[in-house]
Amino acid sequence: MGEIVSIKRIALLAVLAAALAVPSALADGGHVSLVAYSTPGLAFAKLIPAFQATSAGKSVSFDQSYGGAESQVKAIQAGLPADMVDMSLEQNVTDLVKSGLVSSNWNKNPYRGINTKSVVVFVLRNGNPKHIRTWDDLVKPGVQVVTPNPFLSGGARWNVLAAYGAQLREGKKPGAAVDYLAKLFHNVVSQDSTARNALNAYLSGKGDVLLTYEADAKLAQAQGKPVYYLIPKATISIENPLAVLTKSQGNTGAQAFYKFLYSKQGQEIWAQNGYRPVDHAVWVKHKKDFPLRPQLFTVKYLGGWSKVTPQFFDPQNGIMARIERNLGVSTGA
Question: 100 is in which domain, residue-wise?
Answer without folding.
Answer: 31-116+239-289
